[in-house]
């Protein structure tokens, strides 16, 4: 069983002790000393606006306060999202299965996100076996139906939807991409917004490629490179460039020598940045 999450007053008391301040100094002009003692003992609630004033005074970020409150650990929800974002591809079966086991161990949490993510990951596992896009769409459709009517998506909902692009037909995709771009612009500065968008396009390209629709990935690979350059993600830049070279070869095999040199350059770069296994895998 995990550690007990500290109460707000208990956490404030710990921060005050670390700063080696008296109650009157730490809470000055925000709440009285008597009020503060009751808060720290847990017998008095502290309003959000007053908490924000205290944190701002001592240069403590809200996320940092929650981190301290959670015994210097990320919350379960954040850990799960981090682990999900570290799954390189929908073909990364070992990591997907590991996260599925994590979610099963958290079955006591009444988080809708955990339940929907579990279904999403299970559909990935099934797709890796069947390569059946219609089956994948069928399994993901209930998740989309659940989220489709939202006026705006939360970050967790965006994590789910951004990994379900494959359910949309070509006629729907343009509208969906436009809406997602708007959502991503709102979350650009939040957590891993850019990395989430990168993962969205890469997973979509992977699904298309596995369904022998390689040429359709060209536009999305170009978007991936743009985002990866901004993030300084050398691995993703190389992978996307390799796939684009593959498409150029399919479209015009007369460029053999030029493409050979380009692929050679990509593989050398991958080896230089320590991704030897991936260099072997993609070729």
TrEMBL record:
<feature type="domain" description="HTH-type transcriptional regulator Rgg C-terminal">
    <location>
        <begin position="103"/>
        <end position="281"/>
    </location>
</feature>
<dbReference type="GO" id="GO:0003677">
    <property type="term" value="F:DNA binding"/>
</dbReference>
<protein>
    <submittedName>
        <fullName>Transcriptional regulator</fullName>
    </submittedName>
</protein>
<dbReference type="Pfam" id="PF21259">
    <property type="entry name" value="Rgg_C"/>
</dbReference>
<dbReference type="InterPro" id="IPR010982">
    <property type="entry name" value="Lambda_DNA-bd_dom_sf"/>
</dbReference>
<dbReference type="InterPro" id="IPR010057">
    <property type="entry name" value="Transcription_activator_Rgg_C"/>
</dbReference>
<dbReference type="InterPro" id="IPR053163">
    <property type="entry name" value="HTH-type_regulator_Rgg"/>
</dbReference>
<dbReference type="InterPro" id="IPR011990">
    <property type="entry name" value="TPR-like_helical_dom_sf"/>
</dbReference>
């Amino acid at each position: 069983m995990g550690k007990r999450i500290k109460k707000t007053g208990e956490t404030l008391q710990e921060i005050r002790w670390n700063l080696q301040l008296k109650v009157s100094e730490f809470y000055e002009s925000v709440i009285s000393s008597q009020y503060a003692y009751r808060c720290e003992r847990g017998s008095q609630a502290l309003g959000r606006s007053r908490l924000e004033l205290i944190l701002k005074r001592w240069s403590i970020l809200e996320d940092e306060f929650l981190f301290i409150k959670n015994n210097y650990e990320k919350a379960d929800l954040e850990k799960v999202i981090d682990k999900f974002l570290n799954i390189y591809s929908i073909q990364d079966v070992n990591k997907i299965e590991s996260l599925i086991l994590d979610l099963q161990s958290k079955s006591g949490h009444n988080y809708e996100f955990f339940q929907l993510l579990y279904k999403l990951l299970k559909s990935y596992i099934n797709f890796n076996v069947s390569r059946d896009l219609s089956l994948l769409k069928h399994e993901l459709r209930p998740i989309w139906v659940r989220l489709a009517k939202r006026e705006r998506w939360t970050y967790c909902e965006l994590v789910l939807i951004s990994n379900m692009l494959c359910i949309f037909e070509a006629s729907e995709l343009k509208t969906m991409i436009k809406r997602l771009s708007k959502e991503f612009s709102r979350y650009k500065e939040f957590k891993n917004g850019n990395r989430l968008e990168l993962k969205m396009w890469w997973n979509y390209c992977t699904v298309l490629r596995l369904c022998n629709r390689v040429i359709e990935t060209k536009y999305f690979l170009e978007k991936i490179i743009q985002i990866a350059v901004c993030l300084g993600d050398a691995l993703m830049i190389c992978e996307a460039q390799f796939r684009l070279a593959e498409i150029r070869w399919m479209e015009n095999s007369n460029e053999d020598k030029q493409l050979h040199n380009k692929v050679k350059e990509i593989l050398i770069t991958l080896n230089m940045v320590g991704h030897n296994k991936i260099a072997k895998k993609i070729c």
